[in-house]
UniProtKB/TrEMBL annotation:
<keyword id="KW-0288">FMN</keyword>
<feature type="signal peptide">
    <location>
        <begin position="1"/>
        <end position="27"/>
    </location>
</feature>
<dbReference type="Pfam" id="PF12682">
    <property type="entry name" value="Flavodoxin_4"/>
</dbReference>
<feature type="domain" description="Flavodoxin-like">
    <location>
        <begin position="40"/>
        <end position="193"/>
    </location>
</feature>
<keyword id="KW-0285">Flavoprotein</keyword>
<keyword id="KW-0732">Signal</keyword>
<protein>
    <submittedName>
        <fullName>Flavodoxin</fullName>
    </submittedName>
</protein>
<dbReference type="InterPro" id="IPR029039">
    <property type="entry name" value="Flavoprotein-like_sf"/>
</dbReference>
<dbReference type="InterPro" id="IPR008254">
    <property type="entry name" value="Flavodoxin/NO_synth"/>
</dbReference>
Amino acid sequence: MEHDSTRRMLLTALAGLTLANVSLASAATGNTNVRGNSRILVAYFSRSGNTRVVAGIIHRSLNTDLFTIEPEKPYPEDYFQTVEQAKNERARGIKPALKNSVADIERYEAVYLGFPVWSTSVPPIVQTFLSSHNLEGKLLIPFITHGGYGKGDSDGILAKLAPTARREKPLVIECDQERRTTEMVTNWLETIRS
């Protein structure tokens, strides 16, 4: 099948890539608007850049359109503040407003959806994206980054928020660079202060 060969090509490209060696600026060509006129869309949310890198690889490899999922009010730059806000949003069932939407989502046959796992779940802003875009009959192909806890409850969330989409098995990649780096620096600073 054509999709199987596309998936193999993508996995081969990912297998040979060291995320740290990819320039984030070159990984994605557009931040807020859909670019191009492909029948395939890559829509992604990325906080630290790991998911953006994967989205960029898919976009370039498959010559897709690209859309960045962004909240209307940006998450805090501080990692720990963002974690706290995301936990609060999840606990209270808050789905933050989107900065932009895909106006012509109906023209896409397939949507590659990328996101990091936050607190073992799909980030609230990605849930907003799914709730506000009709993916009926489309092929939904998730690619998920995480910091060591796997994909969490993302299968259930995707099934609930895109029940009429056909889903492909997700690509799940551990990318805990930001959390690990933050912890290393924090620990190092504590040794200096002692």
